[in-house]
Design brief:
Bound molecules: 3-methyl-2-oxobutanoic acid
Cofactor: Mg(2+)
Oligomer: single chain
Number of helices: 11
CATH topology of the largest domain: TIM Barrel
EC number: 2.1.2.11
Number of strands: 8
Number of domains: 2
CATH architecture of the largest domain: Alpha-Beta Barrel
Distance between the termini: 56 Å
Helix content: 40-55%
Subunit structure: Homodecamer; pentamer of dimers.
Family: Belongs to the PanB family.
CATH class of the largest domain: Alpha Beta
GO molecular function, one term: magnesium ion binding
Order of helices and strands: HEHEHHEHEHEHHEHEEHH
Shape: globular
CATH superfamily of the largest domain: Phosphoenolpyruvate-binding domains
Radius of gyration: 20 Å
Structural class: alpha/beta
């Protein structure tokens, strides 16, 4: 079904709710630096997520846990300088909001003040209720994140599909309702059964953005390096690769090495 798209000069949290109401699917992608954010924004992606996946993709850590608040602010401020249209959401990193709600608010304020981003994202449901309440109370838009929440990877033990069992599915549905009631403007659902994700999307009025959560939700998010095929070791079922940049970039760089070795680069026209 094709849906008439409203033009947005700048996407806001209100635009996302409007898109859901109008049946327009929301596109969201990660970016962590100025150059990539410029490309993503120029391609009319609605939301740029400065994800703590930067810890994996940019810094090469095994999990998202090591990235710091200062590092997230650095990434976010580079993205803010690039993006003119997209709404920019920043992950509050592990350890910066779980211990108490006052620390959570301080972290969110630092992100908003020092990076110029528009909203923050936090992982979890009832466990972080007070933090979500306090951040929203200060006027900062909050996006939730349920299902596979990578900051809790050591609790889960694996990156497999979450909420397949009734008890976990029930808690997820209750958490989604609770986040809506607290005033979150949207929720990411990661790696859960498509049927459950659709049920959640239909039960709340705020947009549900899926990653590995099927097509019955209000929008999709991917890590941009995965979509472009730069991270070739990562092959989950939900990932659609639109390019194979790992290979293409490798070939281009090998060609450059050859050209230097063969004294072919630079040629007459490439010098002063
Ligand atoms: O950090 C991230 O990139 C994310 C997305 C996978 C939703 O949280």
């Amino acid at each position: 079904m094709s849906v008439a798209k409203k033009e947005y000069k700048r996407v806001t949290v209100k635009s996302l709710v409007e898109m859901k109401q109008n049946g327009e699917k929301i596109s969201m992608l990660t970016a962590y630096d100025y150059s990539m954010a410029k490309i993503v924004d120029s391609a009319n992606v609605d939301v740029i997520l400065v994800g703590d996946s930067a810890s994996n993709v940019i810094a090469g850590h095994e999990t998202t846990l090591p990235i710091t608040l200062d590092q997230m602010i650095y990434h976010a401020s580079s993205v803010v300088r690039a993006a003119k249209r997209a709404l920019i959401i920043v992950d509050i990193p592990f350890g910066s909001y779980q211990s108490d709600s006052k620390e959570a608010l301080r972290s969110a304020i630092r992100i908003m003040k020092e990076s110029g981003a528009h909203a923050v994202k936090v992982e979890g449901g009832a466990e972080i209720k007070e933090s979500v309440k306090r951040i929203i109370g200060a006027g900062i838009p909050v996006m939730g994140h349920l299902g596979l929440t990578p900051q809790s990877i050591y609790k889960f033990g694996t990156y497999t599909v979450r909420a397949k069992e009734e008890q976990e599915a029930q808690k997820l549905k209750e958490d989604a309702k609770m986040l809506e009631k607290l005033g979150c403007f949207g929720i990411v659902l990661e790696k859960i059964p498509a049927k459950l994700a659709k049920e959640v999307a239909e039960s709340v009025s705020i947009p549900i953005i899926g990653i590995g959560a099927g097509n019955g939700v209000d929008g999709q998010v991917l890590v941009v390096h995965d979509l472009l095929g730069m991270t070739h070791e990562f092959n989950p079922r939900f990932l659609r690769r639109y390019m194979n940049l790992y290979e293409d970039m490798g070939n281009a760089i090998s060609q450059y090495v050859d050209d230097v070795k063969q004294r072919d680069f630079p040629n007459e026209e490439e010098q002063y």
